[in-house]
């Protein structure tokens, strides 16, 4: 491992993005294992709303933990507490005026504009025009809102929804309940894609396209993950989208694991709609407000509210006042007429606190130079991790796990999923945690390791592999094998 | 008359005869002295005139407002109002808690705790509750913790009837997706003529989603000339349409006039007439008036938390689902039709809904199974994992409610609003602008909130009776430190909320308003 450590150090030193790590609060080893908040010292309630300080660190345990779990919950940008402090100060000072009254030199927009500002920051991350993006609600809510707008089944025509057989359960439940709303059932109208060849259910584009072909005439919509949560596979979004369109199918992408992870060009790829959450690679915080994309061709409003039958000028969607044209929103008229674009799918005024948290994090993406720059480092980082797993571990240990993520770097993001031998997961996770290595588990046998380019290092990868070897050793011993 | 006696009169549904001295500052001050809730004011940050005028952040927030104005014994002038409130650093007269509640001081502590938890624990914060944290729960339990706090606020039978999630309009859609299941016979939604626009759009789009026509399936209940929704009119509308109605959806408090509807009576009447579902939008009622949703037999309700609940702009919302809908068996109506539509699904029947993983029972949520087994009750309507920081802010706001009761808040609110109305009554005459001897005095404004104390919450809506008055009056109010809501073209809404407003606030508002009218009419 000495060689690996040296290599890692060299890679870290020459890493152009190394400085972005400094933008994040990395839990220390002591903190990650803590069961208490830091005890507030005297005068702990700060007079200054900007004064957020992490507890002073125990020097002995002051090293950062090895946090490779950004695919599950991203770390906190350092500027997030400051931005939130500014928001709280605005609410305190201005009360309701915060909706409309701008403050000089404030990084924060007035509250009525927070959604537009957030959309502006997200748009380049997903490769869309600002008008094609809305920061709102949560991932599953957005899937429901999109399907309510764009899934109009005809049992005698197109009624099926295609999704993968190992979809994240929320997607599965969303699709199933949408079907049931229309009086359909999974038996009649749900088609799942399973790989005929891969035991890990890595789906080739061919697998997907054959299922599409088979059901094309009766399929209304297809919902797929940009990156599959379990295997970490990155699907070929443009190719699959184009193919589905050839067959007249509406294409929705769940980008939970893709947004902020891999470069996306949703507009150019002609994606119909997409939704995502913001607490993974976007580092917005647990459960942070999500987002959706609607291609401009699907969100046109071709009539004015004063025209005859204005409702025929836009696609019906589950509506709320925040999707109405801003200029008339406060006029309290009994007429919904959406603004064109993704913003027309909004329902309610969003949580300013939540959106502030997200926008703070998105500033860091801009600072780092955007996702394509991060992707360059990510490719190297994950390849480095993979090379260690493949060639820097003993044969004994290598026999105890398998990487189920595609080895083609273009078919994956930051994450590697490791399938362990049965019965080892619990011990491995415990041993890793004891060594302050934080990864994610998927019972019964998978651990997911995701070195995030914004804040992980090549040395993190080496530390992981060392800890992983020790953990496997311990688990092997525990099994008596 | 003392505080308690006045409250008793108001509780009996009568308007008290205020003492002739009631329009003196001393009287207001005396009421504050008797106010058992005056200590709660210190727990909020009330904007000051200085802070309201800020053009840039400067690292300060207003100091804690004292429960009662500082009286230094000597008056600086002969006007009692100059003793207090003319200092730009004194709290403003913040009467807009019906639109955006003032910030509880606890919010900073809770939000900081959440930020520290995230920074320190990373992903482990989902399952670890830090011992000394004001949050009192790990992230995965935070929503439930807030749900518990709502039980006494909305009158739920238990926490399983309450869920904290999403936003009001989304919750309305989720409730309708589950409870508005139109058939050929029963397809109508009864609503009031001018609901808050979001409700209108939600209802309209739900109907369209079912392929029905809003023109035939939306039935508006009309108010009288004063925009008053008479209970009799509502009951009559229910009677007329009961057989074809799938859902009655009304606001607990009407946002424009501030009218409090008789939720108990209307719900009971609708259910007795066979209306399968009665839903209430409690945006202006939650945290404002006493609610007994379970006892009243309400099927579902939704609310936001940034008004009287003080959780911050757009903060995470709430919903109520009656226990009768938690179980597996769907009640049948007299035609043998299922009153709702259930699904046979995996582990058994439960009410149809738009589902997501977070509605699954906690014990199986991470099993990644494809069979949806919802948590019994309202929490089974969750879709995605909620925002922990939003929940932190809400839990802080709810912790203030935990220090009192809705009954105590309502007592004070009844008196605050009655007192406001009494004082405003003195402002009614509009001075004749011409000196030509025209003695007729026309009122400058009219209160369009019902006069019956039992038919309103904290809010009073003032309809200005002359064009152009709104702008001039608004400007004067703003200059004099009043924060209120203007509804163009001619309505001002003020809400002296019991948690942090004082009787002196009301006195000062009436004083400023009187002068505003005088100045604007000159």
Automatic annotation (TrEMBL), chain A:
The modification N6-(pyridoxal phosphate)lysine is found at residue 280. One of its GO terms (biological process) is quinolinate biosynthetic process. Pathway: Cofactor biosynthesis; NAD(+) biosynthesis; quinolinate from L-kynurenine: step 2/3; Amino-acid degradation; L-kynurenine degradation; L-alanine and anthranilate from L-kynurenine: step 1/1. Its EC number is 3.7.1.3. It is found in: Cytoplasm. Its main location: cytoplasm. Its cofactor is pyridoxal 5'-phosphate. It catalyses: L-kynurenine + H2O = anthranilate + L-alanine + H(+); 3-hydroxy-L-kynurenine + H2O = 3-hydroxyanthranilate + L-alanine + H(+). Keywords: Cytoplasm, Hydrolase, Pyridine nucleotide biosynthesis, Pyridoxal phosphate. It is an enzyme of class 3 (hydrolase). Pfam families: Aminotran_5, KYNU_C. Transmembrane segments: none annotated. It comes from the Eukaryota. One of its GO terms (cellular component) is cytoplasm. Pyridoxal 5'-phosphate binds at residues 139-140, 168-171, 254, 257, 279, 321, 349. GO terms for molecular function: kynureninase activity; pyridoxal phosphate binding. Belongs to the kynureninase family. HAMAP family: Kynureninase. Homodimer. Catalyzes the cleavage of L-kynurenine (L-Kyn) and L-3-hydroxykynurenine (L-3OHKyn) into anthranilic acid (AA) and 3-hydroxyanthranilic acid (3-OHAA), respectively. This is Kynureninase. It comes from Lasiosphaeria ovina. The gene is BNA5.
From TrEMBL, chain B:
Homodimer. Its EC number is 3.7.1.3. Pfam families: Aminotran_5, KYNU_C. InterPro entries: Aminotrans_V_dom, Kynureninase, PyrdxlP-dep_Trfase, PyrdxlP-dep_Trfase_major, PyrdxlP-dep_Trfase_small. It comes from the Eukaryota. Its cofactor is pyridoxal 5'-phosphate. It catalyses: 3-hydroxy-L-kynurenine + H2O = 3-hydroxyanthranilate + L-alanine + H(+); L-kynurenine + H2O = anthranilate + L-alanine + H(+). Pyridoxal 5'-phosphate binds at residues 168-169, 196-199, 281, 284, 306, 357, 385. Keywords: Cytoplasm, Hydrolase, Pyridine nucleotide biosynthesis, Pyridoxal phosphate, Transferase. This is Kynureninase. Belongs to the kynureninase family. One of its GO terms (cellular component) is cytoplasm. SUPFAM superfamilies: PLP-dependent transferases. Residues 55-88 are annotated as: Disordered. Catalyzes the cleavage of L-kynurenine (L-Kyn) and L-3-hydroxykynurenine (L-3OHKyn) into anthranilic acid (AA) and 3-hydroxyanthranilic acid (3-OHAA), respectively. PANTHER family: KYNURENINASE, KYNURENINASE 2. The modification N6-(pyridoxal phosphate)lysine is found at residue 307. Its main location: cytoplasm. One of its GO terms (molecular function) is transferase activity. NCBIfam families: kynureninase.
């Amino acid at each position: 491992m000495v060689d690996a450590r040296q290599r890692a150090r060299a890679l870290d030193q020459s890493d152009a993005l190394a400085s972005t790590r400094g933008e994040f609060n990395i839990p220390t080893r002591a903190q990650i294992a803590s069961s208490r908040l830091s005890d507030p010292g005297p005068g702990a309630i700060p007079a200054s709303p900007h004064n957020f300080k992490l507890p002073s660190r125990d020097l002995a345990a002051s090293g950062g933990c090895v946090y490779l779990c950004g695919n599950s919950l991203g770390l906190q940008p350092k500027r997030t507490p400051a931005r939130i402090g500014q928001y709280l100060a605005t609410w305190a000072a201005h009360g309701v005026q915060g909706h409309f009254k701008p403050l000089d030199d404030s990084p924060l927009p007035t509250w009525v504009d927070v959604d537009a500002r957030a959309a502006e920051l997200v748009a380049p991350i997903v490769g869309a025009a600002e008008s094609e993006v809305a920061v709102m609600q949560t991932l599953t809510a957005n899937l429901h809102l999109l399907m309510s707008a764009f899934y109009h089944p005809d049992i005698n025509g197109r009624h099926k929804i295609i999704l993968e057989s190992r979809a994240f359960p929320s997607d599965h439940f969303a699709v199933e309940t949408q079907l049931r709303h229309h009086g359909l059932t999974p038996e009649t109208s749900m088609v799942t894609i399973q790989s005929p060849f891969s035991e890990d259910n890595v789906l080739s584009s061919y697998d997907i396209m054959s299922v599409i072909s088979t059901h094309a005439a009766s399929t209304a919509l297809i919902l797929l993950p940009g990156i599959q949560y379990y295997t970490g596979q990155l699907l070929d979004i443009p190719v699959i989208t184009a193919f589905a369109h050839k067959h007249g199918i509406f294409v929705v992408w769940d980008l939970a694991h893709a947004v902020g992870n891999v470069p996306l060009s949703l507009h150019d790829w002609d994606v119909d709609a997409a939704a995502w959450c913001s607490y993974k690679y976007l580092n917005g915080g647990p459960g942070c407000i999500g987002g959706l994309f609607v291609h401009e061709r699907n969100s046109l409003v071709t009539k004015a509210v004063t025209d005859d039958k204005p409702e025929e000028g836009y696609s019906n969607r589950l509506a709320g006042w925040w999707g109405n044209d801003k200029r008339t929103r406060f006029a309290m008229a009994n007429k919904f007429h959406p603004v064109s674009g993704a913003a027309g799918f909004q329902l309610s005024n969003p949580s300013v606190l939540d959106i502030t948290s997200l926008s703070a994090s998105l500033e860091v993406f801009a600072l780092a130079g955007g996702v394509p720059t991060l992707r360059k480092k990510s490719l190297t980082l994950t390849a480095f991790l993979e090379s260690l797993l493949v060639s820097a571990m003993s044969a004994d240990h290598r026999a105890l796990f398998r990487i189920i993520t595609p080895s083609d770097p273009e078919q994956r993001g930051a994450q590697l999923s490791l399938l362990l031998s049965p019965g080892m997961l619990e011990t491995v996770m415990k041993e890793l945690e004891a060594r302050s290595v934080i990864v994610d588990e998927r019972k019964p046998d998978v651990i997911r390791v995701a070195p995030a380019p914004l804040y992980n290092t090549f040395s993190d990868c080496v530390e992981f592999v060392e800890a992983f070897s020790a953990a496997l050793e311990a688990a092997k011993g525990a099994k008596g094998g | 008359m003392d505080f308690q006696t006045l409250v008793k009169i108001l509780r009996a549904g009568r308007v008290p005869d205020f003492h002739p001295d009631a329009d003196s500052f001393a009287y207001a001050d005396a009421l504050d002295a008797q106010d058992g809730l005056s200590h709660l004011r210190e727990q909020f940050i009330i904007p000051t005139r200085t802070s309201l005028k800020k053009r840039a952040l400067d690292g300060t927030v207003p100091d804690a407002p004292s429960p009662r104005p500082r009286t230094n014994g000597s008056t600086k002038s002969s006007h009692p109002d100059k003793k207090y409130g003319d200092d730009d650093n004194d709290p403003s007269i913040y009467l807009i808690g019906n639109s955006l509640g003032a910030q509880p001081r606890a919010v900073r502590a809770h939000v900081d705790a959440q930020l520290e938890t995230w920074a320190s624990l990373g992903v482990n914060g989902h399952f670890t509750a830090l011992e000394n944290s004001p949050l009192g729960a790990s992230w995965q339990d935070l929503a439930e913790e807030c749900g518990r706090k709502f039980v006494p606020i909305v009158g739920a039978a238990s926490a399983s009837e309450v869920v904290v999630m999403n936003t009001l309009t989304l919750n309305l859609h989720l409730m309708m997706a589950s409870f508005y299941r139109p058939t050929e016979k029963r397809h109508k939604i009864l609503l009031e003529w001018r609901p808050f626009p979001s409700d209108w759009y939600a209802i309209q789009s739900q109907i369209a989603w079912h392929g029905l026509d809003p023109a035939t399936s939306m039935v508006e209940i009309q108010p009288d000339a004063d925009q008053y929704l008479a209970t009799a009119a509502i009951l009559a509308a229910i009677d007329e349409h009961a057989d074809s109605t799938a859902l009655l959806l009304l606001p607990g408090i009407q946002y424009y006039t501030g009218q409090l509807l008789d939720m108990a009576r209307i719900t009971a009447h609708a259910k007795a007439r066979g209306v399968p579902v009665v839903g209430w939008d409690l945006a202006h009622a939650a945290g404002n008036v006493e609610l007994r949703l379970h006892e009243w037999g309400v099927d579902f309700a939704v609310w936001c938390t940034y008004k009287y609940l003080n959780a911050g702009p757009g903060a995470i919302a709430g919903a109520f689902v009656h226990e009768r809908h938690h179980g597996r068996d769907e009640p049948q109506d007299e035609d043998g039709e299922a009153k709702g539509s259930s699904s046979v699904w995996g582990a058994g029947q439960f009410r149809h809904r738009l589902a997501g993983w977070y509605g699954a029972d906690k014990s199986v949520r991470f099993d990644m199974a494809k069979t949806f087994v919802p948590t019994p009750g309202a929490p089974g309507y969750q879709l995605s994992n909620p925002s922990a920081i939003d929940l932190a802010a809400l839990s802080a706001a709810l912790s203030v409610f935990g220090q009192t009761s809705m009954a105590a808040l309502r007592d004070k609110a009844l008196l605050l609003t009655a007192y406001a109305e009494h004082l405003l009554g003195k402002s009614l005459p509009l001075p004749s602008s011409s000196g030509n001897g025209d003695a007729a005095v026309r009122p400058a404004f009219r209160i369009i909130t019902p006069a019956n104390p039992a038919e309103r919450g904290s809010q009073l809506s003032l309809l200005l009776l002359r064009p152009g008055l709104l702008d001039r009056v608004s400007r004067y109010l703003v200059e004099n430190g009043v924060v209120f809501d203007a509804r163009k073209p001619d309505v001002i809404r003020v809400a002296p909320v019991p948690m942090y407003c004082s009787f002196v606030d009301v006195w000062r508002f009436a004083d400023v308003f009187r002068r505003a009218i005088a100045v604007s009419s000159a």
